[in-house]
Amino acid sequence: MAAAEDALGDALLAALEAWPRVGVPDKPEAWLVAAARRKLVDAARHAKVAASAAPALEIVVEQAQRGVIDAVFPDERLKLLFVCAHPAIDEAARTPLMLQTVLGLDAATIASAFLVAPATMSQRLVRVKTKIRDAGIRFEIPEPSELPSRVDAVLEAIYAAFGSGWEDVAGADPRRRGLAEEAIWLGRLVARLLPDEPEALGLLALMLHCEARRPARRDSAGAYVPLGRQDVALWSQPMIEEAEATLDLASRAGKPGRFQLEAAIQSAHARRAATGRTDWESIALLYEGLLRCAPTIGAQVGYAAALAEVRGAQEGLAALDAIPPESVRTYQSYWALSAYLLKRLGRTAEAGQAYTRAIGLSEDKAVREFLADQSATC
Amino acid sequence: MKYTVLIYENATDFSARTDEKRKDAYWGAYRAYTKALTEAGVMVGGAGLQPPPLATTVRLKNGKRQVQDGPFAEAKEQLGGYYVIDVPDLDRALDWASRCPAASTGAVEVRPNLAM
Q: Is there a contact between B36 and A357 if contact means CB atoms under 8 Å apart?
């Protein structure tokens, strides 16, 4: 117990201090094992633990953390997720904190996923854990009145992990998984712990749909394949089925929301595997609903794309033009869509410029090459 | 804040510059990147550098001038160019660095400039 306490982070130490007040969990060892994981890995890296012992230690701890805690300890895990999404915690720090404390990921991994300097990420995590301790943030389920917004914050944080490493989730590079697997794991956990929250199910369905198509995003030569041209045989049927079942379950609650709508959009795209065509009318309708509850730039661009398919490139361009230019100055998807629509309208000079802009904003070599090809055939 | 984005390329990257099959993609990507930086209003300056064999290194060793052919250090990746950008913080500078073509094949270093 003493050795494990040495390895506790500040936040979890605070939790231990609270246990005398709220009651000690049935299996405190499991909790300590989880908390100790990160510190043990760090310690191993500093060669305080014999190099040969470290991997074995890590496996034991990993199994304990993932298996035992979840089975024996669901409430504590949920409380931890809620703490990570507390309003007093800086939004940018919520996802990293969740990944570190719930999944035991190290600061360097988290930093890389979010394109932040590792030293900066470490500092942010230390600052936030200090704040949890100093501000006395309680390790508990929020009051019923706070529950909806806190659940939203937890889901947003998990979605941010899923989207780490790229902006347009639908066009992601299979080699740059970011933290997709970890996010889906968290999504499944939250869906299990909050069975009455349809948005939790919606988020899980959304992530599963996106992940199901990953194998089709690049061809065998590593070239980028746009969604409409993906080989549906490469999509993961089991994942799509799980996504559909999850979304179906969510819809029974009759409480649509941002993540359910996004999942429904991806579900419509997935239906191409069965019907051979994409139901753009339904997608456009779903985007209209999405824009009403979550008008993000991504949703606006997605809507413009759907509108273009239903009512023509001119309408799509008009929808793009309605977006304030300041907000899309560095948003790659906007320029890629703009170029595509301009090309379809025969406005080749403008299309060329938009393609150049999209290329300059792309992080992925395969995407750059694809856009360059599109531009060359203007 | 001003940051310098230092571009490190390996031999394959340098050879792409003049390779008939790869040069259009190479220069196209850098032209597009430069344009994006400019249109976003963050571009302060920069330059592409000729390849490492054209470098000459000058040092003073024990009071004697020493001139050697080639770059400062023997390394697989060598400086190929740089950009100076003006962005609010390091996070923003890193976003731009990740878009630099060299980030996919070589390495990109970001360092804050001294305030002078």
A: yes
